[in-house]
Amino acid sequence: MKKINLLTGILTFLTMLAPCVVTAQQSQTPINITTTTVQGSPAQFTSYSGLNATFTFQTQNTLNSAFCNSGAGDVCTLPTAPSGVNAYPVANTRWGTYKLNNPNYGSCAPSVTFGGSQYCLLEFHFHGPAEHWVNNSVTDLEVHFVYFKLADFTGPYGLCNPDSLLVLGQRMVGNGNTPNSAWTNVFNAIPAANATGANSGQTVSFNIAGMMGMNNFNTAPSYRYSGGLTAPISIGTLGPNSTCVATTNPNNSRPWWGNPQRQLTEETYPQIVSWVLFRQPIQLSVAQVQQFKTVFADGNARAVQPVGNGTTIYFANPN
Question: Within 13 A of 51's CA, how many CA atoms are on the CB side?
């Protein structure tokens, strides 16, 4: 799961996802899924048929977008270290990605209803290699469809609750020479990097249901757990009432993750995501995978994190 600011910010958000000052179990993302608990009565998707339509999203290459947004109130003195794994340039070259932003997220279209709550599609983006490992194995790419909980968006705490975001993840494998036609438009539209990581000004059309390749979300086997973003996020991006991402601890007896500087230094990102990782990978051609890797040659996957104590990884619909 970058930064959102409700209108433009939320759109440069989440390729992504500090320890809480309030006591909380650590549940960082991504993880290597090796041990699961069969979920007898998993939360149901009761509305997702609207995904079977043609949508037009704005394309963005976020390679040069800034970690810290001083206009939003971030106070950062990046990098956090002069060299090594903790050295982060102000320009976002470590987690830059190809992102497709929904221009209609404010009207909550398209949306899904999951566990009784309505979630609005904000954007989707890619990681290469895949961020989640399954049984010690990793695939070429992983796509994240990022939804936000409508009730939390303007709620008293913003998108700061453990289930404020719903990310539907699918791993992707390059195999053979035949392209996956459902994804052709998307991969052909990857924009080159620009100076600021802003939207490219270009759009692309696609059918989300066709790309995901599933007729029934509720019968498709999936791994589910409560986790976090996989990259730092700026102040003001999680709703107007959010205090969980702020330079100063509000001391309101709720989790506080700090600004991007603190998140990077602590290497702990906001734990606000319900993760649903579908078991079956999407099949692409080798050339389609290479289209992404040519633009993002250094890779953009966060390293696998330890599974936190108290974190249960559920296996839903193990058919």
Answer: 23
Q: Which two tokens stand for residue 170?
A: 């699918």
Q: Is residue 2, in this structure, part of any structural domain at all?
A: no
Nearest CA to 235 among 13, 21, 1? Answer: 13
- Please report the DSSP string for 243-306 in residue order: -SS-SS---SSS----SHHHHHHHT-----EEEEEEEEEEEE-HHHHHHHHHHSTT--PPPP-P
- List the CATH number of the domain containing 216: 3.10.200.10
Q: Specify the amino acid at residue 64.
A: N
Q: Which domain does 227 fall in, by range?
A: 9-316
Look up residue 153 and give its two tokens: 């968006």
The confidence band for 23, taking pLDDT boundaries of 50, 70 and 90, is very low
Residue 3 covered by a domain: no
In degrees, rounded to 5, the angle at the alpha carbon of residue 191 between the alpha carbons of residues 187 and 194 is 160
pLDDT-based confidence at residue 19 (cuts at 50, 70, 90): very low
pLDDT at 105: 94
Q: What share of the chain is helix, strand, coil (3-state, %, to 5)?
A: 15, 30, 55
Number of domains in the chain: 1
pLDDT tens, residue by residue, 36-95: 999 989 999 999 988 999 999 999 999 888 777 777 778 777 655 555 555 555 444 567
210-217: long-range contacts, CB 8 A cutoff, minimum separation 24: 210/52, 210/182, 211/182, 211/183, 211/186, 211/282, 212/51, 212/145, 212/168, 212/170, 212/278, 212/282, 213/182, 213/280, 213/282, 214/278, 217/45, 217/48, 217/112
> pLDDT class for 18, splitting at 50, 70, 90?
very low
Q: pLDDT value at position 93?
A: 53
Q: What is the pTM of this model?
A: 0.89
The encoded tokens of residue 126 equal 């890619």
In a domain, 136, yes or no: yes
